[in-house]
């Protein structure tokens, strides 16, 4: 579907681009914002404003184009564009004179982010962060792009303003018409019933995923993301019926993710993705959602394949979160930056031979070289990344050592390296305490507590934190933001609380989770259509029969999972209604709906 839309609109988009290109100390509204990402732009010379009704009214009154710049705290290229462009006096002068500049934290406004990512993906063929989208004063998207070097950005600003000055009406009409056409086409594709249940898409999902699977390196694509919605659905398929090809691919992928560059083998936790197909070099930011979802995948895989290594990976990841991502109020922060406190990308995690020689004794150094391959010339400016090809049990066997003694030796080295980097290096932290991501983490604690009772106190305190975000009618999106959450927040928190209640017998968690789930259905699902937010400021929000996955399973998946745990008869009927209504988009692009298809496999 995305490909068809891209073909249909590429010509219009490039015609528009041709039109564009042929014819000290500062403080702004973001200073001291509760969002670290927004606050870091508080001293830019750009007159940044926030995304709200007052800002849109100002743009309309002054008839100015709106630049919506979206990013997040741990995004490397967001920092680069800030340094090159948004801290530039010349760029600021262009923006302040002719534009309304809006800075958005994507984690605090996920629905706006999804809408504009969709627009840029369809019109240019790719999207990511930093995301920069120009809107008309009526908030219709005109044109968008990701990172741009300063000179290119200045050219776009100058030529777009010149074009707006002479042809504002034509550009505004074009943007409005294109937006309405795109919205109608998306809704038609994704709301058209196929008169089949979602379960009928299972075979096609399997075919699509295995066709796209990297059978040599594991995972999907050239840049390797964890792809937890897709991997979890394949695991559900394997549980239903053993399949040699699926099992070999899953175990290869799980091994690669746990042992190579996606995983921090010294301090624990997973990075967001690797930039290469071999899982060697990560993009070094660590996200809370990644480190909440990965334990769930590894716990399930450990049970299915009877593999203690996977269980250990899951537990170590949760303990990493507790140790390194704890925030105020018994909740957990949203991310750790890819760039260390010395402005070195990955610097916190990389090692030179000289550094290792100064920290470890000779025997430890030899072992570190053998396990992690750290004795080579620096592969990155700050050093080498520890990664391995084998499990610890396999390595112990190769070195003719008992596994317990070998693991003890490895942990001693890990502890020395962790102590060194914690003392001599630092990582900027995005300290937001987000409802949705903490709900996912609570679900992971619920899964892990049966294996490790030390998780109980952490989970119980997190459960109390999430319950305090709920006032009986409304769920706050974060600890520092009284704004009502989106469907993402309601669904993930309901699932987390109900999971915790079932795992521990916590009746209050169960009651609160059920109440949130019921309100979520009432507020966000009407007449077979999902609304992801009740307060979108973009014209004509898209309302769909089913929601797509991203790096995180869809909110639809979490709300159905919560409803299944609740055993409430009304919510069970809602599940049946949703699963009984497939769409053409699910049948043509099942990869994007893997979590809901996977849910249908195991639902009874």
Automatic annotation (TrEMBL):
GO terms for biological process: carbohydrate metabolic process. Residues 1-27 form the signal peptide. Keywords: Signal. InterPro entries: 6-hairpin_glycosidase_sf, Ssp411, Ssp411-like_TRX, Thioredoxin-like_sf. Residues 28-181 form the Spermatogenesis-associated protein 20-like TRX domain. Pfam families: Thioredox_DsbH. Transmembrane segments: none annotated. PANTHER family: SPERMATOGENESIS-ASSOCIATED PROTEIN 20. This is Thioredoxin domain-containing protein. The lineage of its organism: Bacteria, Pseudomonadati, Pseudomonadota, Gammaproteobacteria, Thiotrichales.
């Amino acid at each position: 579907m995305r490909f068809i839309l891209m073909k249909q609109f590429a010509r219009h988009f490039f015609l528009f681009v041709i039109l564009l290109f042929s014819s000290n100390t500062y403080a702004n509204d973001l200073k001291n914002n509760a969002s670290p990402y927004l606050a870091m732009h508080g001293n830019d010379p750009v007159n940044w404003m926030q995304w709200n009704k007052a800002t849109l009214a100002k743009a309309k009154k002054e008839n100015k184009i709106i630049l919506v710049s979206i990013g997040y705290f741990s995004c490397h290229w967001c920092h680069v564009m800030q340094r090159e462009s948004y801290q530039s006096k010349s760029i600021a002068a262009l923006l302040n004179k002719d534009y309304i500049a809006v800075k958005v934290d994507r984690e605090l406004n996920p629905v706006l982010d999804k809408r504009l990512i969709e627009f840029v993906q369809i019109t240019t063929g790719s999207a990511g962060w930093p995301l920069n989208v120009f809107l008309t004063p009526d908030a219709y998207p005109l044109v968008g792009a990701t990172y741009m070097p300063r000179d290119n950005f200045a050219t776009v600003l100058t030529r777009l303003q010149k074009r707006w000055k002479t042809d504002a009406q034509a550009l505004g009409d074009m943007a409005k018409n294109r937006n309405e056409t795109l919205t109608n086409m998306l809704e038609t594709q994704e709301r058209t019933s196929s008169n089949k249940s979602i379960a009928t898409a299972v075979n096609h999902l399997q075919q699509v995923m295995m066709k796209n699977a990297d059978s040599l390196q594991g995972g999907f694509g050239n840049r390797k993301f964890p792809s937890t919605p897709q991997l979890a659905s394949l695991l559900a398929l394997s549980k239903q019926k053993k399949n040699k090809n699926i099992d070999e691919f899953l175990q290869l992928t799980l091994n690669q993710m746990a042992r190579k560059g996606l995983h921090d083998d010294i301090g624990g936790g997973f990075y967001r993705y690797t930039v290469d197909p071999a899982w060697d070099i990560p993009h070094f930011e660590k996200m809370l959602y990644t480190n909440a979802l990965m334990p769930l995948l590894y716990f399930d895989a450990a049970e299915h394949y009877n593999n203690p290594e996977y269980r250990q990976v899951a537990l170590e990841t949760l303990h990493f979160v507790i140790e390194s991502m704890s925030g105020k109020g018994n909740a957990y922060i949203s991310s750790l930056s890819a760039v260390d406190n010395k402005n070195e990308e990955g610097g916190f995690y990389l090692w030179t031979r000289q550094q290792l020689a100064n920290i470890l004794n000779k025997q430890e150094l030899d072992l570190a070289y053998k396990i992690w391959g750290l004795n080579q010339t620096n592969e990155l400016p700050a050093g080498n990344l520890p990664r391995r090809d084998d499990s610890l049990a396999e390595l112990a066997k190769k070195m003719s050592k008992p596994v317990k003694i070998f693991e003890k030796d490895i942990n001693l080295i890990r502890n020395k390296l962790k102590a060194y980097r914690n003392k001599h290096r630092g990582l900027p932290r995005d300290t937001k305490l987000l409802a949705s991501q903490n709900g996912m983490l609570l679900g992971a604690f619920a899964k892990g507590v049966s294996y490790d009772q030390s998780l109980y106190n952490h989970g119980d305190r997190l459960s109390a934190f999430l319950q305090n975000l709920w006032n009986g009618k409304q769920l706050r999106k974060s600890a520092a933001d009284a704004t009502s959450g989106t469907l993402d927040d309601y669904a993930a928190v309901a699932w987390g609380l109900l999971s915790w209640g079932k795992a521990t017998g916590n009746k209050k968690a169960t009651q609160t989770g059920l109440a949130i789930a019921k309100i979520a259905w009432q507020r966000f699902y009407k007449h077979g259509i999902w609304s992801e937010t009740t307060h979108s400021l973009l014209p004509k929000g898209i309302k769909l029969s089913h929601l797509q996955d991203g790096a995180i399973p869809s909110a639809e998946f979490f709300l159905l999972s919560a409803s299944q745990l609740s055993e409430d008869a009304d919510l069970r009927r809602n599940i049946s209604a949703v699963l009984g209504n497939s769409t053409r988009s699910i049948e043509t692009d099942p990869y994007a709906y893997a979590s809901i298809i996977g849910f249908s496999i195991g639902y009874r």
